[in-house]
Amino acid sequence: MNIKKAIEVLEYHQQWRLGDDDIVQTNARELTESINIILVEVKKVINTFYCQSEIEGGKKCETQCEHCKEYYKPLSNNK
Q1: What is the DSSP letter of 16?
Q2: What is the reported pTM?
Q3: Cα dihedral value 49, 7, 17, 20, nearest 10
Q4: Are residues 41 and 61 part of one domain?
Q5: Helix 28-46 crosses helix 3-17 at what angle (to 10 degrees)?
Q6: Cβ(26)–Cβ(12) below 8 Å
Q7: Residues 28, 42 share a domain
Q8: Cα Rg for the chain, rounded, in angstroms?
Q9: Which of 58, 63, 56 lies closest to 79, judged by CA?
Q10: Does residue 14 carry a pLDDT above 70?
Q11: Do 54 and 31 belong together in one domain?
């Protein structure tokens, strides 16, 4: 399943959950797979950070250093 399909499954399930009588309950396996796919994608976004070293042509650090955290703080909504 791709991310687009996972989103469709979750939107469909949400309609059922909110009481749409024209919708049948989502298959549990399909729902679980959709949730897992979306979680992977969300974690990718959450684990993204700005790295000044990378911007300057160096290797991106495994974790964001204190200098970059402070430098980019205004851009990151204080994550």
Answers
A1: H
A2: 0.62
A3: 140
A4: no
A5: 120
A6: yes
A7: yes
A8: 19
A9: 63
A10: yes
A11: no
Domain that holds residue 35: 3-46
Tell me the residue type at 51: C
Contact by Cβ (8 Å): 13, 5? no
Q: Which pLDDT value is given to residue 58?
A: 76
Residue bearing the bigger pLDDT, 26 or 60: 26
DSSP 32-44: HHHHHHHHHHHHH
Which of 66, 5, 68, 77 lies closest to 35 in space, CA to CA?
A: 5
pLDDT at 31: 97
* Nearest of 77, 4, 74, 66 to residue 37 by alpha carbon: 4
End-to-end CA distance of the chain: give it in Å, rounded. 31
Judgement on whether residues 42 and 54 belong to the same structural domain of the protein: no
Each residue's pLDDT tens digit, 35-58: 999 998 888 777 677 777 777 777
Do 31 and 60 reside in the same domain of the chain? no
- Give how many domains the chain has, as a whole number: 2
